[in-house]
What does this fold into?
Amino acid sequence: MASSKIVGAVLVAGGGVAGMQAALDLANAGYYVYLVEKSLAIGGRMSQLDKTFPTNDCSMCIISPKLVEVGRHINIELLTLTDILSVTGSEGDFTVAVRKNPRFIDMSKCIACGECTKKCPRKVGNEYNELLDNRKAIYVQYAQAVPLKYGIDPKECLKLTKGKCGSCQKVCPADAVNYDDKPQDVTFKVGSVILAPGFAPFKPSDFETYRYSDAKDVITALEFERYLGATGPTMGQVVRPSDGHHPTKMAFLQCVGSRDVNRADNGYCSSVCCMYAIKEALIAKEHAGGKLDVTIFFMDVRTFGKDFERYYEKAKAAGIKFVRSRVHTVKPEPKAGVKISYVTDGGAVGEEFFDLAVLSHGLVITPETKALSESLGVKCDGYNFAQTTTFAPVALSRPGFYACGVYTGPKDIPTSVMEASAAAAAASSKLAPARSTLTKVINFPAPVDVTGEPPRVGIFVCRCGINIASVIDVEKVVEFAKTLPFVEYAAVTMFACSQDSQEKLVSLIKEHRLNRIVVSACSPRTHEPLFQETLAAAGLNKYLYEMANIRNHDSWVHANNPAEATRKAMDMTEMAVAKAALLVPLKENVIDVDPTALVIGGGVAGLNVALTLSDQGFKSVVVEKADKLGGNANRIKTTAKGEDVGKYLEALKAKIEADPNVSVALGAEVGQVEGYVGNFVTTLTTGETVKHGVTVIATGAKEHKPEDYLYGRHPNVVTQLELDELLKAGDRKVEAAKTFVFVQCVGSREPGRLYCSKVCCTHTVHAAVELKKSKPDARIFVLYRDIRTYGQKEDLYKEARGLGVIFIRYDLDSKPQFAAAGDGLSVKVHDPVSGRHLLINPDLAVLAAAIVSCRETELGMKFKVPLDEDGWFFEAHQKLRPVDFATDGMFLAGIAHYPKPMDEVVAQAQAAAARAVTVLTQPRMTVGGIVAEINQSKCSGCGVCVAVCPFSAISLDDKGKSVVNEAMCKGCGNCASSCRSDAPSLRGFTNAGLFAQIASAL
Amino acid sequence: MSDFEPKIVAFFCNWCTYGAADLAGVSRLEYPPNFRVVRLPCTGRLNPKFIMEAFKRGADGVWVSGCHPGDCHYIAGNYHARRKFILLHQLLESIGVEPDRLRFSWISSAEANKFQAIARDVVEHVKACGPNLAFRKEELKLGLAEVA
It folds into this structure.
């Protein structure tokens, strides 16, 4: 492949959260992106969610900044209403043909005022609200949509279908309506393709059992999600559809359209339904103020992700009832509600009335996506999910094609986001020579010099839909704001963060010559960068900005006290104005970035990080404390898909050895760490010094040493990894064994270790299947609490049962009893189905020991990154930044983050590398801004600031006065609060500004 | 005294307690609306003068909250804050300010429930102290007039 033919652009198909993340990572790494979306707007399924588990973050709040970032990214070309016709050529040089379907609205003219929608006479079911209410034939997909431009539904518009009406054209003040808009076929060149077409929720219409089609009070979980949403059909009111009453008793029915080959042909587990049902149940209870009973009917509770098990426990503590049963009959009651009949696993028959039944429907691949896979030549599995392998988890069967999100299997948002970054890395792995050849550079206008000008403050008070405005009298806040000193402009805005508001902000800054901006909205922790960029786009120094958090700190927590909440919002706005008026423009400087990564940990994660970075031309140093590479994978025999881990590891090690970009330090650990993003200097315990621009922590975890079940006291009791080692070695004990007992959750999901180790169920079931295949006469018992073979791994569970593996469930309070019986073992377990105790005499007992963290507190301290209470490294955001740390230049991969199977480890490693590339690819980066400065005329050279600075950023110069290294200063302000003579000052948080805030607070 | 609603100035560090307050919002955990929050990058930025200023301007209480020991985003800012804080607390006590008017706490960004509990507790304690008269300017003037 000659480098001249490599195209430095990538096609990303699908504008959901996965497609958006892939597009952003590629665009920020120097590749031009065509983001193709078939609907009117990006955002995908996540935009429909009210909250996200397990943090209950508001979905729109966290996705909104990403929508805006994609929408305004100079290197992402957004093609909405677009279908892919064909992709020809080969990796590095593809030609893509697409059809842009008509929107009938000139996007450059539409100002999204909504006049057209008001006048449109044609009502149509609103897909965004799952058809629970209506939209018009001319519409925006949802209020915060990007691009925020209207479109006409050609199947419904009276003008387009019958030649009548034409009202929208008449009322449009911008002359944006064009009924003659035609489809346009265009072609463009890309080097690779990422498919992220997502899923559709399973439609339970054909299920007579659940009466979805005819019983009004049987709804789907996504419908219920829309009821919970503030922008939903009932503005967040939970109602019973038949009569609009608030339900007092509701049920969730799990596995509808999942784990079901009898009626749905979907043998797989949809992976997310247990968690979203718990989430919806918790939030519904919250909405109902405690006057709601919720029962969840389930087969296995699959809360296998980070912090999921605690979420499950929280639900139980909140009084949510969990009943282990597949419901067999749902009967609508004459007036309202339904009667649900079920049988528990102990054989008890139950019948109960519920106001509302919610079907936790699974995720399915649509016929359109299936057709797309076929037309593009992408191989899929029996469920139409695109096929991948464990060791190349985001690569599709057609070379040059990659994937992320639910397209390759059911998964949650963080896993999709992780895969998206991984796909960005994989899709650009062959394109490195063409990096930055097609990208454009953003040229912010040179900031207007406002030094010396009197402050002209502009204030925007956000309604946040109803999040703020339903509690706080925003008009009153605006009127009050207008009376504050230096305020030139104050107004209410619906969603301050939406793209149209941002654009309006730019024009208002110019129109009113505003030189300080205050936004009274949500948290600066999430939204400050977005607004700061808008300031820059308007030619204003981005530090002339202050935020009042009247949502998180006010309307959301004082909902029962609107008067005080409004008063507080006024005070908060006044405080922000007081500080803003004293802000001065801050300068940022440029520093060089060392294009090298330090990768800590030489397991599968660390090695994949290094190789992925090498593909992009960046060097890494891999630090491994053991004397060989490979980590835990050295002990694993095969993956759940049957791939040989040993062979893979040998190939991986050989690649590392041959790669000139990767050097390895064995038997080494991190000693001293200095520096910061772009310029770390780390000394290893071997004495070697490494200069690096980024750091990736991939330190892994270890297998728990069980205390129970005679482990370590009986030779026939081993752990899972020990079984793998015995199998690899062809051990005679295993060869001779005829009866096996596997015990699940050994040390997991218990007080003190309240998490699921995620991999053990699949590992056990896979081992059981392999054993059963090699010796069909073997008797295999699996003692479990919930089987958690999520996603397509469910097929293995089904296979195991088909092969005769016996699964016996136990509860935490009736664990299996192990005793030595002569040379052998006896295991006593209570079987809930027969209600009797069973006695098994296994030749070998295998314990699914928990994965426990290495609790690398010291390493965390050295790099200033946190750990959670279980000792896992704590990412910047559980949902949307799963491989980043909050500290710049720090990334995370593998099971140091949380237990996960090898395909997810590899994906996370590639993702961490992709994120690292977004730093390494910039030859220089900006520093400064909010850092300390010293007024040397006040400095007596006492050295207190030098002593208290945690980052060694201050030193005494040759005149004995303090100076600050801006690149090392992190802006904590310790120096400013410790000096006796106020010589140091923290820019952006000056004494004057803070005193002004205090004064206006009172 | 039951109608008395104290005004309390709160100094939160950006990374932990401010985050906890954000999360309390996301989780809709209600607490009394008596606080006005000054966001600091770190409690280490807290100059004792800020607390004095708040009292001088009529605050009935001050609440300072940062990261747990060992959790500081800036390594040790919260330790520096604690040292200053202990000294200031003793000083205030010696000049007749009720210790309950001033509170220092550690709340991580994940501890929304703890945030809610402490917020309620701070208000309760400051309420029990009654309005802060010791620092009010008019009270001060009155005192001087009497002396003169």
Summary: The mean pLDDT of chain B is 85.
